[in-house]
Amino acid sequence: MFITFEGIEGAGKTTQIKRLHAFLIKNGYESIITREPGGTRIGGHIRAILLNPQNSDMEPLAELLLYTADRAQHINEIIKPALSSNKTVLCDRYFDATLVYQGVTRGLDTGLIKKLHETIFNNLKPDITFLLDLAPELGLQRAWKDINNGSRKNHETRFENENFAFHEKIRAGYLELAHNEPERFCIIDASKDQDHIYQDIIDSLKGRTRFLIAEGLNL
Hints:
It is a single chain. By secondary structure, this protein is α/β, with parallel strands linked by helices. The protein has 8 helices and 5 strands; from the N terminus they run βαβααβααβααβα. It has a 5-stranded parallel beta sheet, with helices on both faces. The longest helix is centred in the N-terminal third of the chain and has 25 residues, at about 60-85. The protein is globular.
C-alpha cells in the first residue's frame, strides 16, 4: 500500500504521518516513512538546493527537473523495494505536489509534468492520498511558529517566503486535484487539533475498502 500526505506549508503532514506509522506498526503492518524531496542520501543534497531561501531566483523548469531527479532516486531506492516487500509506504509529499507547485503555481505545462511522470515512472500513483487542507494564513502562521521555535529548519524556508497569493494557489490546486480524483483523495480538515485530525485520518483509512483493517482495533 502506497499512502501519501499532501497540503500547504504548516498543514501538519509530518506530525500525522508519524502517528499513522505508529498506528500501522502497532496493528501488525510493516510500514516505512519517507518524504520528497530528500528521502534518500542523494535526494538530501537535492532538497538542500530546492528549499534554500537563497535560491529564490531558481528557474521553474530547473525546479521541476530537480524534483524529478529526486523522485527517480527515491522511487528506485526506497518506494519500489518497500512495496515489493509488501510494506506500507507513507510518503510526505509526492507527484501531486509537483503538479500543484510547479504546474498550477509556477505556470509550467501540467500536461508535460504528467507526461514526464507517465514516461519515466510508469505513472506510479499512491493508493490513498490524504490532503490536509486548511487556510493559508493559518498554515503559514503554524509554519513560522515552528521555524521560530526551532522545531523546523530555518534554512528550508524558500516556499514559506513566497507571497500569500502563491499559497492560495497551492491550496486551490490541491483541492482541484482532489475533486478530480475523489476515489484516491481523502480531504482532511487540518484546522482541527492534532487528535481530531488523526482520528479523521484513521476513520477515512478504515472506510477504504482497499485497505482492510480488522474490527475492534484499539485506536
